[in-house]
Specification:
By secondary structure, this protein is α/β, with parallel strands linked by helices. The protein has 8 helices and 7 strands.
């Protein structure tokens, strides 16, 4: 199978090289047809230039900041793989572990796999956004996720042809709901990876507030459809 790795990035000049290098270094030997596509969401730093120097197959720069959803949509448009792997740009040296979630797709055991990380040693925030996303997924599909917000996903091309990519930070929650409701098999796989820690800083709270806002408006119509269909 051909595999396309899509890395959405915004102002990740300090992490993007490590992420790409880890993906390349840890790529399983049997994965011969792999492309790494970095979509730079109008970064204000040297994310694009560093990504090119670090070995990305394609680097696409958006002229205007459109959010994570827009970056992923652009990446999918330019991807030639049968399997699409989403990898966040700030994983650094842990990005190579994400290859582990591709095997169940290739083996025919799942249509979409989600990487479930270990607990955040920094404590993260208060978990309100994660709990809301998990509740929305369970309410609409019956599936009870442990990692509803995980951006590390391996997905069959046919899944992405049947579902839509939501805007902003609602991508993961909406994608899980839509994939399951379309009859696809979704499986979580525990692996080790880590993000840039925001913790309980003001930047962390602003980030989670934006997450909640995006997720709320994306899941609202899905929740309403669930209620009206009962």
């Amino acid at each position: 199978m051909r595999i396309s790795v899509i890395v959405p990035a915004r102002n990740e000049a300090d992490r993007i090289a490590l992420t790409i290098q880890s993906l390349l270094k840890s790529k399983p030997e049997g994965f011969t047809e792999v492309e790494i596509i970095v979509v730079d969401d109008a970064s204000e730093d040297e994310t694009s230039e560093i990504a090119k120097r670090s070995g990305a197959t394609k680097v696409i720069r958006l002229n205007r900041h459109g959010g994570k959803g827009a970056a992923l949509r652009k990446g999918i448009e330019n991807a030639g793989g049968d399997v699409i792997l989403f990898v966040d740009a700030d994983l650094g040296e842990t990005a190579g572990n994400v290859w582990q979630i591709v095997a169940p797709i290739i083996d025919g055991k799942a249509d979409m796999t989600i990487a479930a990380p270990p607990p955040d040693p920094s404590g993260g925030g208060f978990g309100l956004v994660k709990k809301f996303a998990a509740w929305a997924i369970k309410t609409t599909t019956g599936f009870n996720p442990t990692a509803p917000l995980s951006g590390q996903r391996a997905i069959k091309r046919e899944v992405l042809e049947r579902v839509s990519i939501a805007n902003g930070y609602a991508v993961e929650t909406a994608l899980t709901i839509d994939a399951i409701r379309s009859g696809f098999r979704v499986v979580e796989i525990p692996i080790t990876f880590g993000h840039r820690a925001l913790g309980k800083s003001w930047r962390g709270f602003l980030h989670r507030a934006k997450q909640f806002w995006d997720i709320f408006w994306a899941v609202l119509p899905r929740l309403l459809r669930t209620v009206t269909s009962r």
